[in-house]
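Materials and Methods. Structural model of Cobalamin biosynthesis protein CobD. The 313-residue sequence of Cobalamin biosynthesis protein CobD from Kushneria aurantia was retrieved and submitted for structure prediction as follows.
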Amino acid sequence: MLVTTLTALFLDRLWGEPRRFHPLVWLGRWADRVEAVLYAEQAGKHQAIARGAFAWLGVTLPPVALAFMLDNRLSGLWHTLFAALMVYLAIGWRSLKEHAERVMAPLVQQDIAEARRQLSMMVSRDVDTLEEPQIALATCESVLENGSDAIFAALFWFAVAGVPGVVLYRTANTLDAMWGYRNARYRYFGRVAARLDDLLNWLPARLTALSYALAGWHRKASRSRLRQALRCWREQGGGWKSPNAGPVMAAGAGALGVRLGGPSRYHGTLQPRPVLGAGATPDANAIRRACRLLDRALLIWVVWLALITLLLS
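The predicted structure was written out as C-alpha cells:
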C-alpha cells in the first residue's frame, strides 16, 4: 500500500492531471446519459429522490464493479501499477497547487484582472469585483477545502478499501459536483449524491483538519499555532454550511494564522458566511503558505501510512 501510494504521488508530480482522455470525463458523460433517462421534470419530492438514488447507483456500480474485478485478477507488479494508476487518476495534488500558483503570480504583480480570471477557474463565486485580499482569501479556501476532497479523502479510501474504495469515492465525489446543488433541478434528484458524498468525506475531512493543525506547528511557528488551529476547528467548523468543509478550512486557517470565510457573492446574491480562522487578512503570500501547509500535511499522511504498514507487516 505504501509503495502504491508513493508511486501514485510520484506520477501526479511528474504528469499532473491528464489533459486528454481523463476517465472522469467519460464518467461525466455517462452520468449525463443516466440523468437524461431517469430525471423527470414533474416528479414529486420522494419520486425525485428515488430517481436520484437509482441514477447514483447506475453511474457508480459499473466502474466500482470493474475496479473490483481487475483488483482481484491482477497480482504482483501488475497489481501495484494498476492500483498506483487508479490512485493517481483520483488525486489532484499538482493541479491544485498549479491553479493556486496561477492566481498568486498575477496577484504578486498587481495584475488584478488576470488574478480574477485565474480564480474564476477555481471557484464558483462571483469574482468580477474582488480585490487582492478577497482573491487571496478565496484561493486559500479553495486550496484547503480541495486538498481534503482531491487528495486526502482519496488516499483514505484507498487505504481502507483498496482500488474499489478509491474508485467509489472519486465517482461519488464527481456526482456530488454534478448533482449536489440545492436548486430547482437538483434539490431532490441530487440529494442522495450530496448526502453520500458528505458521508464518505466525514472521517477523511476530520483527519485532514487534524493534519492541517499538526502541519501548522513547525520550526517557524510556535506551539500556540497548533492550539489555535484546534480551537478554530472546534469553535468555528460546525457553523459552516458544509459539515466537512467547515472543520477543514477552520483548522487550516487557524494553522496559517489568517481569517477566511465572511460574506461572499454567488450568482449575483450576497451570501452570509461565518468567519473561519484567526489573524491577518490573507495576501498573495498566504496562498504560498497554504500550498506549503498542504505539502506538510501530505507528508504527515505518508508517515502515518508508513507506520501503519510497518505495524501490519
